[in-house]
Design brief:
The protein contains five helices and no strands. It is mostly helical.
């Protein structure tokens, strides 16, 4: 270290309604804006607020399970199978970047899904196997 102090995360517990005690004069408000800490004046910017908002919303898992529950068994199996195939393909695709030490960019992910859709179209264009009647 070249004379600089390392910062470490600390936990701070403040009394309830502490934000109401913060000075809101023009000079202090301007200082909060300059320091990019204006959020300290926002009474809704609390852990409790964010937790209650999260409880009101369904997560992706819940939405996915709800969508699956509206399908018949065959559709459920097909959807889960397609998901597992996509997951495997994506993990293999991302592993290439990890092996090469490359950063994955948005365009890389977009290209993955474009290729995935193209591959799906190719599969759909194939005739049914001989075992089908």
């Amino acid at each position: 270290e070249s004379g600089s102090k390392q910062k470490s995360a600390k936990t701070l517990f403040l009394p309830e309604n502490w934000r109401q005690e913060i000075c809101r004069c023009t000079e202090c408000t301007k200082l909060f804006e300059e320091l990019d800490i204006r959020f300290l004046l926002d009474n809704t910017d609390t852990v409790h607020h964010y937790e209650s908002q999260a409880k009101k919303r369904k997560g992706q898992f819940e939405e996915g399970m709800e969508a699956l529950s509206k399908m018949d068994r065959v559709q459920q199996v097909e959807a889960i199978s397609m998901y597992n195939n996509m997951k495997t393909d994506l993990m293999e695709y991302l592993a290439k970047f990890a092996r090469e030490g490359k950063v994955v960019k948005k365009d890389d992910i977009d290209n993955f899904f474009v290729e995935m859709k193209a591959g799906k179209r190719r599969k759909l264009d194939l005739p049914p196997p001989d075992s089908c009647k």
